[in-house]
Each structure stands twice: as structure tokens, then as C-alpha cells.
Amino acid sequence: MNKLYPLKFKPRFRDKIWGGQKIRSVLGMDFGILPNCGEAWVLSGVHENETVVADGFLAGNELNELVEIYMDDLVGEKVYEKYHNEFPILVKFIDANDWLSIQVHPDDELAQKRGLGNGKTEMWYIISADEKSELISGFGKKVNQSIYLEHLKNKALKEILNFEKVEKGDIFYMPSGRVHALGPGILLAEIQQTSDTTYRIYDWDRTDENGNSRELHTEEALDAIDFNVYNDYKSKYARAINETVEAVNEEYFTTNVLSFNKTILKNYSHLDSFVLYTCVEGELNINYPEGSIDLKMGECLLIPNVVDEIEIVPSTDSKLLETYIL
């Protein structure tokens, strides 16, 4: 069997009512004849939405096929034991040209009880944002289910939700159960559990070109929503150069931020996991024992568990999100 190597995948593009042109104009991806693009799925094991390998002898193979063939060599022993033949992480780039619907995701227990597969916990890294861009994360005041339903009925949800101004480099961790929405002018990278389960709570009374509203999931969402109020909705992390900075360390994934302007070496022999590099700034070369591969903003690279030593050589000031499962 040929040796595993760092893998890039062909993106899958999603036309969205709220999408724009930045997937093409900023990230340089060609989404073809779509009028706009809200999401580019650059690494996906979601059923019927799997990404396929772009280069090398494995070109054309779907991600989950590789997990089935290579098992712990690709993902690590503990990861394979837990997730079997489904790759556990989905990586997207999202362009919000308008408000996304206000939504919530169920946790694993609720999703599985309802036959929906995994729950959905995610994180957002803001690549760029307009000056007045903001997003919704959780509640801004203490409410209960009846207060929430009253505001929903009266189209007054904004009064009880927490709005956050955003700028480049901000990170927001979105656990399952947290009500959230992205506002216009935001381009981001999203790292999440492998799941496409969303409960849409409110869609700003929008209709499509045929005058139809999108489906809402008012009842289904009630059991999923976390009504608590939290002190900090934005993740704090050190803005350091040429070192590994932890941003999110949770059950479903750990994500570090690597900002660098010189060559750095990484050794992953201590990890029992794959590693993902999601490039959110710049351009670089990834050298590994058997070869080299380039990576630029808007791309994601899967480092198999069996590849321990990596040399990262930036062509310009660059930034990666480094993700694995502990």
C-alpha cells in the first residue's frame, strides 16, 4: 500500500439566500455558475456531501472511503474507535452577505434520539469583517422558555439576544444549544462536528424569488436551546507570532492559531490524531518526509496520523488554524 500523504480536497459549494461573492473574490475559489456562494465545504465527511481528494494517487477518493481503508493510520486509534468510518470534523468557509437565520444546533444526545446523527458544536474564526459587522451569540439577558416564545411570536427576538461586534482575528466558540446568527459583511472559517443538523428559529421574514419562506423549526428547537447567559461569548487567545497558541480545547476538537513569518517545525508523534491546517491568511509550503505541498488562504490540508514531522515555510506573513482531537 502506498504511503499516506497530506491531502487537499475539492471544495463543495453551497448557494445560499444570504451568500455573496467573497468565496471567489477574496478566497480565489471558482464556484461556477452559482449566482452567489454562502459556503465552501473544503473538508467534509457528511453523508452525500463528502469531499474528494484533489491530488496524488488518492485523487478522486471520498474522505470517508479513506477512513474506511486507512483507519487509525489516517485518523488515529482513539479517533477511529470513537467515530469509526465517519471523519469527525467538517471545515467550511462562510461568506455572509446578509443576516443568516437565527438558529440553534442540538447536542449529540438530542440529535441521536431524533435520528439525526451527530449534534453540532462549532467554532468561527473571523477572516474579515466590515466596520459595523456583528453577530448573535446566545442571550443578552436571563430568559426562560415562555419569555423566549413570547418574543419569538412578537418578532422581538433581538431584544433578548446578545449581539457582538466582530473584527478580523476574533474567535467564537459555539457549543450545541447556543442560539446564534451571522450578520452581513463577515467572511469566516468554521470548524465543526460532522453534522448538517440545524434548527432554524427565525429568518427575518425573508422569502425567496417565488415568495416562499424557509422552513422554521420552532418546536424542535425548544429542547435544544440553552437559555443561560454567559459572561464571555468571544474566545480569548494570545495574538502571538511564531508560536502555537491554543484558542479552543473542547471535547470535539482542539484548535490552535499559528501566526508566523518564518519557518517552523512541527512534530506530531505525541498525538493520536490527524491534524488539519486551515489557512486563513497568506501562503505557504508544507514540507513532509516524502514531499511538499503548497497551501493558501481558503484551503484546508489533512495531515494523516502517520505523518509526524512537518516543516511550514511561509511565502509571506501567514496564519493557520491547527485542529486535532485529543
What does this structure look like?
The protein has a six-stranded antiparallel sheet, with no helix packed on it. With 326 residues, it is mostly beta strands. It is globular and about 60 Å long. The mean pLDDT is 96. The protein folds into two domains: 7-222, Jelly Rolls (Sandwich), CATH 2.60.120; 243-324, Jelly Rolls. A hairpin with a 2-residue loop joins strand 17 and strand 18 (291-296). It is built from seven helices and 21 strands.
What's the topology here?
Layout: E1 7-8, E2 12-14, H1 22-25, E3 39-43, H2 63-70, H3 72-75, H4 77-83, E4 89-96, E5 102-104, H5 108-113, E6 122-129, E7 134-139, H6 145-153, E8 161-165, E9 171-174, E10 180-182, E11 186-193, E12 199-202, H7 218-222, E13 243-249, E14 254-260, E15 264-267, E16 275-281, E17 283-288, E18 291-296, E19 300-303, E20 309-314, E21 318-324
Antiparallel strand pairs: 1-19, 2-3, 3-4, 4-11, 5-12, 6-9, 6-11, 7-8, 7-10, 13-14, 14-21, 15-20, 16-19, 16-21, 17-18, 17-20
